[in-house]
Design a protein that fits this description.
mainly alpha
Length: 225
Amino acid sequence: MSQDPAFREFFKLQEGFEWNVALRLIGTLDRLMAKGSDGQNDLLILSALDLIQGLLLLHPPSKSLFAREQNMNLLLDLLEPFNCPAIQSATLLTLVVALLDTPVNTRTFEALDGLLTVTSLFKSRSTTREVKLKLVEFLYCYLMPETPSIPRAGQRDSVPAMLQRSPSKLVGAFAGDTRRKKVSGGAVMTLTTEEKQELLSRHLSSVEDLVKDLRNCAPFGGVVC
């Protein structure tokens, strides 16, 4: 797809505020949530979540929008018990896409008590079986080891030609209010599976079993060894 001129132009347009579709969809999602819950509105929220997932996959730099606490809070609000199971499941999938290979977003998620939100939903008796399965899948993804979001200069030969550019303008604009931890040199701190296991164990007692399953079953291509 990276060789498709139309896609390359689309990707280029997403780099700025004027044409970034994910930014517009997040604003749409915010307005839909303010309208309250009814069948038609729920369908529109589901559509917005599906589109956001696809756009984050097509244009990974747009993930930086969820480094902003306001935007991450939208997703956490959609996990509240009063939302329908379909919205909760779609939100968990959107969270997986937003956090994958983006440690700064994961640090924002943690800073906003995202782990408390997802574990409370998991432990609630009113949570449906389908949503609990999605929650387990999300926790598997959360526990996977992290890699830095942006390749170092020495690694750029392995990056597709269309991505050999300076980081998206969206990154600098939307990461400023994030309470994130950094290591020397300004890089966002990444956590190991063991470190995230310790964080998660503050809210959930069966984390060791999840990690054991993650190692033994080798889901997601055996990323966790």
